[in-house]
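Would you mind writing out the residues of a protein together with its fold in token form for me to study?
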Amino acid sequence: MNKMISLVQEHDKWRSSCINLIASENVMSPACEKFYVSDLMHRYAEGTPFHRFYRGLKYVDEIENLAQEEFKKHFNANFADIRPISGTIANFSAFSGISERGDKILSLGIENGSHVSHEKAGAAGFLGLDVDTLCYDNDLSMDAEKSAEKILAVKPKFIVIGGSVILFPQPIKELKEACDKVGAKIIYDAAHVFGLIAAGIFQDPLKEGADIITTSTHKTFPGPQGGLILGNIEEQTAKTIQLRVFPGFSSNHHLHRIPALYCALREMQEFGKDYAEQIVKNSQALARELFDNGFKVLGEKKGFTQTHQAVVDFEKPGAGHEAAVKLEEANIILNKNMIPGPNQSPKMPRGIRIGVQEMTRFGMKEPEMKEIARLIKETVRDERGIDEIKKDVIGLRSGFQAVQYCFGKD
């Protein structure tokens, strides 16, 4: 027991001294954490509110219904399911709810920012879907005209856009006409930009023509880890997706998540615009500083990024992996990533993906982003010792320990 206590304490101590730039992580506020830790974590609630298989859920039904209705209202959706326990479970449920084995779909492709669950190696493949890709250029910008032509040629059951690397709004309106002609639905995986959408500073997928949003709830949207499905869809499709969530891909859906998720939405309603705008300012400042220091940063022609992410191409096989390992030694945490172009593999890619949402939530702004860019350069490119850089990282991080843009921070 003492060993486990020590390991957890060491992890907490270490991560509080790191600059975390993992694009798929964030931290909850103290208010959300209080909701997260309750008797709800011990309970089961198979089914939907007021239609359960277990007893003892009279308050759970009210809690889940309140949260679900608030998400529908905020996103102008006629359907919401907050039960998926991850973004991948949300994708499994939505994909299987509108398709059958053998159906053709179009995704972005891993090198263009797709999530693995959209691909043959993930949920789409496990569901027996025939996956092909939409058309991109080497700067992570979709070619809308060529993609529309491919939709007309392939006639997919659905297309899935959004994904794990997303720097700019995607051409939903431009693809909608082609999808309508062949009867294809549009699924927008908003996992990474859900907080920006919630804050109203990024494209609104449902308003622009997407049928379904799938998402996780713990990236730019700073809630508990989990998933969610939203949509403006016909009643029968909604019922089918609900049955995929339960009993299809999950049983109990981790009830303590739900009030924390509701709290995170209310925080985004109160503080989200300021938070999201600062996220984008920070990612653009970091990207610009890295570019000015000689790095190849994707998206240059369009201002590098309009999200929380920046992507660097080292133009050498495996260099993304090497950079991520070396940066971790300096207490800078980020991930290697596939990017458009040859001479790479998922294990040995050319690029790195950087996300600023967590450090923004701890109060960092543009000056700190420029300092982080300098530290990345010194670690990856310069001859300065790792121990010296690590001291600077710890010193910078020490001034940013309290969560901002939230209830009860004072």
The mean pLDDT is 96.
